[in-house]
Structure formats: C-alpha cells, structure tokens
Write a structure and sequence with these properties.
Layout (H helix, E strand, L loop, with lengths): L2 E5 L5 E6 L17 E7 L7 E6 L5 E6 L4 E5 L9 E5 L6 E6 L5 E6 L5 E5 L5 E5 L6 E7 L2 E6 L3 E6 L4 E7 L4 E6 L5 E6 L4 E5 L5 E5 L6 E6 L5 E6 L3 E6 L5 E6 L4 E6 L6 E6 L4 E5 L2
Antiparallel strand pairs: 1-2, 2-3, 4-5, 5-6, 6-7, 8-9, 9-10, 10-11, 12-13, 13-14, 14-15, 16-17, 17-18, 18-19, 20-21, 21-22, 22-23, 24-25, 25-26
C-alpha cells in the first residue's frame, strides 16, 4: 500500500510512506526526487546493521535480517506505523544477509554466512522447522514464488528447492559468485546477478541459459523481475540501476546514485515505480520509463 521499509547500518528501521502527490502544485512530482515521509523511526531495532527486509504477502508483517544473527518479524496493525509485536528468530551462526516469506505457507526462510544453510521458521509461532543444506559458501540472496525457493551463493551456484518436500529441484552452476537471485511470478524463470557485474536468466524446465547481459562494471547487488515479468531490475556497486527486457535482453541504465547502490525493488503498490537505496544514504522512488 505504498509503504517502504528501510534498514540501516545504524541498527534503525525506518517505515516510510510515498508522497505520491505534490500538494502544493496539485500534480505528481518527478519520481527521481519524490519525497518520503518517515512515519516511524525504530532505533536499535537490531543489535547490528540491517541487511535485508521483506513484507509478508498479507502486508502486516515485516521481516528484517541483521549481522546480529537474528531475524525479527514486526507485526503492524492497520492504525499504527509502530509494531504491535516483534518476534525474534534465532538459529544462525553468522550474519543473516537475506530473508524471504513464502507465499503459500506460514514459512519464512533466512540465510547468510556461518554454516551456509537456509533456516526455515514458522513465522506465526517462531518455531524453527528445519535447515536446508546444499551450499558450500555464503548465501547472499533468496527468492520464493509458490512452492519454489531459490538461493544464490558465493559458491557459484543457484539452488532451486521444493518447499513441500524440502528437496533440491535443480542446481545451476556458474563461473562467478552469485550475489542475487529472483524468480518470476510464474516460477518458470530465474534471474541471477554476479560479482563481476554480469547477469543471466535461466528457464527452470531445462535449466538452460536463456540470455546473459552486462550493464554494470562492478558487483551486481540486486536482480528482480517486474510484476509483469517483462523486465528485470538490477543495481550495482557502480552506482547505477538498470532495466533489461526479458525477450530481447536489451538493457539500459534508468537511475543513478552518487555512491554504491545496495538494493533496488519494484513497488508493489505501483508497478510503474521502483525503489533504490545506496551508500549515499538515500532511498528514492523512480517512475519506470
């Protein structure tokens, strides 16, 4: 519903709303400079830097992951921007770099460094369900659609898991460390970003590479399919956000920060917009061209 969660290195979690209309001019402003209203500034939400956030499909739960080795799930009510409860999930032996809600069950997946496993919890009770093991390096990114969970690792592989059986469906190996992964909304294709700045897309029926491109000249930090699955949004330590067509694999730079871009995501409230945040201490929303 136009709500943005921003995790910071200062341990704080900021809940922001997007000011979609310029009240003074009575028109929509430039999305590259769209102001964000901070509704809640939750200081010391974690005991360390916040590496990852994810909203639940219902929109009332927000998961955060940190180098304090804890995942926290904040529950919000409809009439307040401050959480009514916060559940802490443990079980990690290193930095938790990525967290992801499943969309067909009460499962939340999280991973990072340490033992290189993916820890599954029941996000209602906090009970640890199991650990998925299949990587030999740090896990940098998770993506879940339907009953398929994708994990990207510094060991140069992407593993596709079946959350019903907890078994491995497919494994894709590449020559570089994989820094980010995204499944399209049909769970039929997977996009990956790599440490050398290159990106690729694979079909899950054959696990064959469908296309590869390189818009970035430094580490790719994020890849994400658009809601329509027609485009992929990427960002990099080179300070740029790029978009690629999933049919032609033509790519172009669509936004830029003055320092490393850490994350970019499509807006769930408005599929024509995307959000990016960077080491320049800025979070911005942009309109897709």
């Amino acid at each position: 519903d136009g709500v943005l969660a921003v995790g910071t290195n200062s341990h704080a979690l900021k809940i922001c709303t997007l000011l979609m209309e310029d009240e003074n001019a009575g028109r929509q402003p430039d999305y590259g400079h769209l102001p964000l209203l901070i509704e809640a500034d939750l200081h010391n939400h974690h005991g360390g830097s916040i590496y990852s956030t994810d909203w639940s499909p219902s929109g009332d739960l927000l998961a955060t992951a940190s180098n304090d080795r804890v995942v926290k799930i904040a529950r919000f009510s409809a009439d307040s921007w401050h959480p009514v409860s916060v559940l802490s999930l443990t079980g990690h032996t290193g930095t938790v770099r990525t967290v992801c809600f499943a969309d067909r069950s009460n499962v939340i997946a999280s991973s990072g460094g340490g033992a290189f496993g993916i820890v599954l919890h029941d996000y209602n009770t906090g009970r640890q369900l199991r650990t998925l093991e299949g990587h030999t390096g740090q896990i940098n990114s998770l993506s879940c659609v339907h009953d398929t969970l994708a994990s990207a690792s510094a060991d140069g592989s992407v593993v596709l898991w079946d959350l019903r059986t907890h078994g491995i469906q497919h494994k894709i190996s590449v020559a570089e460390q994989v820094t980010s992964v995204s499944l399209n909304r049909f769970a039929s294709e997977v996009a990956i970003g790599m440490i050398d700045g290159s990106c690729a897309m694979y079909g899950l029926k054959t696990t064959r590479e469908m296309g590869q491109w390189r818009t970035h000249f430094d580490e790719c930090r994020s890849v994400e399919f658009s809601p329509s699955a027609h485009h992929i949004l990427t960002c990099s330590f080179d300070g740029q956000v790029a978009m690629v067509d999933t049919k032609t694999f033509a790519s172009s730079v669509v936004a830029q920060h003055s320092d490393k871009v850490i994350q970019s995501r499509w807006s769930k409230a408005n599929p024509d917009c995307f959000v990016s945040c960077g080491a320049d201490r800025c979070a911005r929303i942009w309109r897709a061209a």
